[in-house]
Amino acid sequence: MADRPATVGDVHRVAASMPHLTRLEGPKGNPIYQVGGKSFVFFRTPQPDATDPVTGERYTDVIMLWVESESDKLALVQDPASPFFTTAHFDAHPSVLVRASRLAEIGMTELTELIQDAWLSRASKRRAAAWLAAHHP
Fold first, then answer.
1. What's this model's pTM, rounded to 2 decimal places?
2. Which string of DSSP letters, residue by residue, matches the chain?
3. Percent of the chain, pLDDT > 90?
């Protein structure tokens, strides 16, 4: 079966499917998914560091995903054609950004892996080990 393009609904479904989940709303109603009090998927409000290079308008659809390491981050953002990006605000922060409007460039399989990895990077060692044992025996 061919991998289908990812959607914003998929981000919510996959994030919500992870165990020990808390879903919060930020001050402007933006969804934040956490495990053990630590965010792993965060829908950002428009910020001055993420803007359209032509119009200067702030992007209204940026999603932040945590990553395990700086090398994981670089693997996602180093190709200029990649839908993933970062900004100076996130230098040395273990996360990548993606616009909801570009999610279709990512297959459902990759999106699922990215969100699961984001959860694993933030979950306690015990919770991560239990989830890995159940899903990758």
1. 0.94
2. -PPPBP-HHHHHHHHHHSSSEEEEE-TTS-EEEEETTEEEEEEPPP-TTSB-TTT-PBPS-EEEEE-S-HHHHHHHHSSTTSSEE--GGGTT-SEEEEEGGGGGGSBHHHHHHHHHHHHHHHS-HHHHHHHHHHH--
3. 92
